[in-house]
Amino acid sequence: MSRTLDRTGRTPAPDGARGPHGTGGDTGAADPGKPRRRRRGLVSPALAAVYGALGVLVLLTVFAPGLLAPYEPNDTHVLSAFQAPGAAHPFGTDELGRDVLSRVIHGARTSLTIGVGASAIGVVGGALVGLLAAVGGSRTDQVLMRAMDVLLAFPELLLALLVVSVVGAGAGNVLAAIGLAAVPNYARLVRAQALVVLRSGYVEAAVVLGAGRGTIVLRHVLPNVAGPLLVLATIGTGTAVVSGAALSFLGLGPAPPTAEWGAMLSEGREYLATAWWVGVFPGVAVAAVVLSLTLLGRHLKSRADTGEPS
Fold first, then answer.
1. Residue 15's pLDDT is what?
2. Long-range contacts of residues 123-126, Cβ cutoff 8 Å, at least 24 apart
3. pTM of the predicted model as reported, rounded to 2 decimal places
């Protein structure tokens, strides 16, 4: 059977196989047998829930004292002690008759301030140590990294506990102790990412063209380190919130009657059998923050790995 040739001497593709420009190939239409790829920029319902939860927490932290808390956190009504959750007190009341919901809302400011502040200290300190180790030469690298290895031999919470035991209790000391304990993790990440960038071809070309060390760090290293650092900082903020709550649970955090989730957990542990709501709702708040930040960090990491914008 003879075949008809087109002007180029090739057999023309069937009409159904022609592409959008009249040539053989993919038509661009979706294959019904294959799952469609999700369009970039769309946010899944689960991720939208995470963003929403974080947004609510921010609102609680910023606007709670005057807008969201139904009562003052330290108003005591002994005759209303240990009221179960109800219309007047959705989260119930504690042993002094204080509204648990109001204290959870006000406690968000204290707990999140400790978490975000500690992460900021860890990021800044870790970035400085990591960059100095990467660009300072082998001797500087060895000294700094061995010091970080010594600190990494202790769990973050234990290291923070040691620092607080030396400098004393208080919200500021807890924040600083948790931040300093997190520096080694950020330093190792920044150093590893910086070394990869410094050994890349475009950085070597920039050196040949006369770019200085400061220019290379600012224009090439920092932009490439920022993404992984943001991911670790997001997850690290949740870890810092847990560490702050743990230290407050041990009585090393803000002084009473300041509302703080860890301190509220410590107060409520004695009444779990008779008034469970006193300790459960602060624990749920801690868990919600950690889960939200962890999911957000995982999302940022997956977007960074695939090269998609967040």
1. 47
2. 123/186, 123/229, 123/233, 123/236, 125/179, 125/180, 125/183, 125/186, 125/187, 126/182, 126/183, 126/184, 126/185, 126/186, 126/187, 126/188, 126/189, 126/190
3. 0.79
